[in-house]
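Dear all,

This email documents one entry for the complex benchmark we are building for the journal club exercise. For each entry we list the sequence lines for every component of the assembly. Then comes the predicted three-dimensional structure of the complex as a token string, followed by one or two observations. Please use this as the template for your own entries, and keep the labels exactly as they appear.
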Amino acid sequence: MSHADDHYYVPHQSHWPIVGSAGLFFLMVGVSVWLNGADSGFWVMMVGVAIVVFMLIGWFGEVIGESEGGRYNNQVDMSFRMGMFWFIFSEVMFFAAFFGALFYARNMAVPWLGGDSNNFFTNLLVWGGFENTWPTNGPGNVGGEFEKMGPFGLPLINTTILLTSSVTVSIAHHALLHGQRNLLKIMLAATFLLGFVFVFLQAEEYIEAYEHMNLKLTTGIYGSTFFMLTGFHGMHVTIGAIMLTIIWLRVMKGHFTPDRHFAFEATAWYWHFVDVVWVGLYVFVYWM
Amino acid sequence: MSTAVLDGHAADDSSEHDHGPAKGWRRWLYATNHKDIGSMYLIFSLLMFFFGGSMALVIRTELFTPGLQFIDPAFFNQMTTMHALIMVFGAVMPAFVGLANWMIPLMIGAPDMALPRMNNWSFWILPVAFTILASTLFMPGGAPASGWTMYPPLVLQTGDAFPFLIFSVHLMGISSIMGAINVIVTIINMRAPDMSLLKMPMFVWTWLITAYLLLAVMPVLAGGVTMLLTDQFFGTSFFLAAGGGDPVMFQHIFWFFGHPEVYIMILPAFGVVSEIIPTFSRKPLFGHDSMVYAASSIAFLSFIVWAHHMFTTGMPLTGQMFFMFSTLLIAVPTGVKVFNWMATMWKGSMTFETPMLFSLGFLFLFTIGGFSGLMLAIVPADIQYHDSYFVVAHFHYVLVPGSIFGLMAAVYYWIPKWTGYFYNERLGQIHFWLSTIFVNVTFFPMHFLGLAGMPRRIPDYSTQFADFNSIASIGAIGFGFSQLLFVYIVFQCVRKKGAVATQEVWDNPQGLEWTVPSPAPYHTFDTPPKVTAETAFS
């Protein structure tokens, strides 16, 4: 640590944020043009993705270099920790919007379509006696007949996998704290491998849903909430597994000490977060 | 620097603290300095203020007389939508973030924001977001015209602009979330060692609470507009009744964001006024701690009142009752704040420089907006007022002489600290009186229009509404052009024209920002300052 703790650290200027803004510009414009039906948008989007990836590698690389160079004092470490914590909180709120949509649909929208509250005549005259059930694709039978995704089979296996990976990442943390580098390497590798297996099985589940159950993103409100919730979760698992892989590579290079390993802990928090979201998903999307 | 000389990295570290700003465009594009980034936020928001303001003038020009004269109804709807989006996300919010950037480190004795590079990114996402949003004006189908609330199914009829609207909102959200994280971490982790939480200035407190609100609701908005996007392009049924969804569900999601959002836009203004009124009353703020608790209560209540925006959507009576009473409850902590400001002035030796005038204008006129809010919160009355010009009058009273006056007061109060020069007091006071008179000429008649039954968001109206509409249009044009005077006054300070400001600037004001020279040096508080009785609040 180069700085005495009574002295503030202020980082030098960086060109990465403006690179990131340029990347987001191409990404967002490209997606929009593409969605509006012009294929050129896809390539603009890919340029944006490339710039954003380049920015992420460059920016994180610079920060890792500064961190390993001992530039950061305890106060900077604490700033990073708090920043990560509140970032995860904002992610929780993002998922809350989709869980909120699920609860609203199940407890308000669908019962009202089924004639609950003061909607008897609307139900009778507009929705032809539609009954309040879950899962449903609504009175319009949007997307056609479908099967419900049950809690057993793949979802249960995936739950086991993700819960196990939360345990392995905790063991890895303890190993790091006690200087057991070999155990750390094995447990961290186990964690991200379990993560990728989870993503693979989730993809299998989607294929099963689309090909054999006629359960699609377009299957009314059930399909919408099922795929958007599990899809965003799967995206976060993928990101988390990539983060874990990078942390593992850093461990292999000898990074992190028992008392300085912010990036490891941040990634572990993130991993526990996707785990907790999954438990919520398993209970409310698959099970209940 | 002496401690840093001992190790190998001393050279680049210490140079970082000692040198001034980088040369040329790099200073701004690669900025990590909180003062530079604060200035960019403030300039950006001023540009957006005029961009959004010119749209308001298009609206008011069309409404000057009954009948359609200048623009077609579709373009009128684009103007109301874009005006709101730009003013909310482009003018008011970034302006307060700019103030936060400039003042929070100075007020808590920190060298900079806690995460300076992310701070840069928060800012530079905004020009990207608003370039994308503004470009929709030139697209087939025009700009978004659904109102800033983006209710489906209407918003799904937007032309090519639709995905651009959604993604620009996402970008604004990303920017706000990163800004909020930075504010929270700065305040919690970077305070001078003896500054306990309850010794913090009110502006810092209100921004801390605002940052938590941002963090809690911007992601929910992001989720809501994502559902709009997938409903439009990927066949989901979130807001489609035939598929088991509900268009009203979007309103719930939107206003779960939207109601805390209105406090995001006013709480920092509360903080500004809480700094200014004590200075010009020459008394400490009355009830500092109760102000903290009041602001926290307002923030908490803001999460459980959202459906008062939706009383006419057909929700169950119990829902209406709950949201009516929770909304009325907000009057209690707000009343605490208003009475504390008045008690601060009680028997103070008051003077009326421009920042104080804007603060007093805020106090009177924001309170009018608060009272009309109480009227709107009452369910049976709201069913009459809903979607009328009374609503327009209400929220413009809290936003223009509320948030905007708070911002104006803050600029006049702190600009001698930023530039080292006083603004022209005479011109400042003229700016205040012009703004105050015209803001009332513009928005007060709208109460009568609304009570008489004129709906909002229409380009044409029945002749019985003609007189008040003409008056409002004259006021709007007067208000808009008065703001050019503000630009001139600020520009003069930046050009170093005017009286030289001392370190304290005002008559013995409280707070750490007055212990550094004017203009504030490029780097302040390299080492933590001592907090004394003079600089601590409570």
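Observations: Residues 1-5 of chain A have pLDDT under 50 and may be disordered. The first helix of chain A runs from residue 16 to 35.
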